[in-house]
Q: What sequence folds into this?
C-alpha cells in the first residue's frame, strides 16, 4: 500500500537497469516511483501527475525535450529533471522554454541525483 504522503516520481528512461536502480534508491527515500521506457508509455503514466519527472532526452520513440515542448500540459504540475549527456547551451535553452528546470548530466552519481531531487522537492 502506498503512503499518501509519498511524492510520486516518474522515471522516463529506456535503460531498464537504470530505471530499476533509481526506483530502488528513491523508494528507500520514501518516494513512490514508477518507470516508463518510452514516450508512449510515459504519456499514459503522466496522467497520474507525478511531482517529479526524471526525463531522458534520447528515447527510442523520440527526444524527451521535444515531447516536453509539444505536450507542456502533461508536465505542468511536475518538476522535470532532464537526464542527458549533452548539456549544451542550446539543449538548456530548449529545456527551459518548456517545464524543465534542472539537468542531470550522464554519467551521474546516485548521491548527486538524490541531492538534486531533495533540493527540488
A:
Amino acid at each position: 500500500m502506498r503512503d499518501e504522503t509519498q511524492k510520486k516520481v516518474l522515471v522516463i528512461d529506456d535503460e531498464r537497469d537504470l530505471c530499476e536502480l533509481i526506483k530502488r534508491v528513491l523508494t528507500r527515500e520514501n518516494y513512490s516511483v514508477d518507470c516508463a521506457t518510452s514516450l508512449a508509455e510515459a504519456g499514459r503514466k503522466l496522467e497520474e501527475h507525478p511531482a517529479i519527472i526524471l526525463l531522458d532526452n534520447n528515447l527510442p520513440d523520440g527526444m524527451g525535450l521535444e515531447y516536453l515542448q509539444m505536450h507542456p500540459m502533461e508536465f505542468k504540475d511536475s518538476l522535470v529533471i532532464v537526464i542527458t549527456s549533452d548539456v549544451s547551451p542550446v539543449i538548456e535553452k530548449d529545456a527551459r522554454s518548456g517545464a524543465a528546470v534542472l539537468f542531470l548530466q550522464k554519467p551521474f552519481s546516485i548521491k548527486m541525483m538524490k541531492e538534486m531531487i531533495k533540493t527540488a522537492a
Notes: The chain has one domain: 7-120. Helices lie at 16-28, 39-45, 64-70, 89-96, 110-120. The chain has a mean pLDDT of 87. The longest helix spans residues 16-28.
